[in-house]
Amino acid sequence: MTRFAWIGLGNMGAPMAGNLVASGHPVRGYDLSDAAREDARKVGVDVVGSIAEAVADADVVVTMLPKGQHVRDVLSQDGGVFSNARPGTLIMDSSTVDIETSRWCHEEAPKHGVRFVDAPVSGGTSGAAAATLAFMIGGSEADVAEALEHVKPMSGKAFAAGGPTAGIAAKIANNMMLFITQMAASEGSQLAKHLGLDPKTFWEITTASSGMSWSQQTWYPVAGVVPSAAANNNFEASFRADLAIKDVTLAVDAGKAAGLHLEAASLAQEQLHRLRDEGLGDKDCTLVVKYVTPGKSQAEI
Predict the structure, then answer these.
(1) 140 in the same domain as 262
(2) Residues 105 and 153 in one domain
(3) Which of 71, 121, 124, 226 has its CA 20 to 30 A from that of 246?
(4) Which of 185, 159, 187 is nearest to 173 (CA)?
(5) 189 and 159, same structural domain?
(6) Is there a single domain that holds both residue 111 and residue 12?
(7) CATH number of the domain enclosing 271
(8) Residue 171: active-site member
(9) What positions does UniProt annotate as the active site of this protein (predicted)?
(10) What's the pLDDT tens digit per position in 269-293?
């Protein structure tokens, strides 16, 4: 039995922490949101009133937060993780953050007597609920090996990505590919539909052919084809467009820093910005399909 603290009990954090509880591990959790705290209680998390209380007796602290600055604040603020975790505690950050934030975490943790791995995930809210997430873990060899054991109740696959920041580097590149393939699923699905193909039949064809991708399998943007797709629910968010902007921007910025021309990623970024600019940032990122069929309502897509 491992004692976990969990900071960030949102759409991903609560079900992930719940899977740890279901596997017999006690989890103390903290979040600013009343709704998030209530959801976490429903899956067995012991929700407490402060970060300090959550981490006081923990063997492992997991952070799952929206932005890099949130991670820095939660770790370093008065009453935060660094000042309250026991010596030797392993901190696992499963947030999607910039490389510099992750590097800062790796550098700062030893100064406070604790250990750190970057441990982002892929698989979305459905993977979080089903305990089928893919973890990409970066850090020292020993800490990564330990983290691989800790994530088993939450994961379908877990990878030792390499040294410090290797996990988040893999996540940034992977998410970039996700948003690019989502554009392909958007355009392909609408082209097939307008050429007279039955959407379900075409989806089955692509599943057995070279058009298959994770986004095509899980987020297919036509209602009535894939049960997990937001298209079935008026594009209510499983992955909000405004959060997708953050992720694809991390990739575009990393590419610029490396001297790369990421033109497809830049187009995905542009389409997601259009959603936000139209007041649709709280909708699912797969609503970019609307730009394939201008003039149609969401119900007509």
Answers:
(1) no
(2) yes
(3) 226
(4) 159
(5) no
(6) yes
(7) 1.10.1040.10
(8) yes
(9) 171
(10) 999 999 999 999 999 999 999 999 9
CB 271 within 8 A of CB 291: yes
Domain that holds residue 115: 4-163
Residues 111 and 92: their CA atoms lie apart, in Å, by 16
Element holding 29 (H helix, E strand): strand 27-30
Distance CA 235, CA 240 (A): 10
pTM value is 0.90
pLDDT at 299: 66
* 164 vs 159: CA distance, rounded Å: 14
Do 250 and 200 lie in a common domain? yes
Q: Of the residues 171, 193, 200, 296, which is catalytic?
A: 171
Claim to verify: residue 130 and residue 183 sit in the same structural domain:
no
3-state secondary structure 186-202: HHHHHHHHHCCCCHHHH
Residue 21 has pLDDT above 90, yes or no: yes
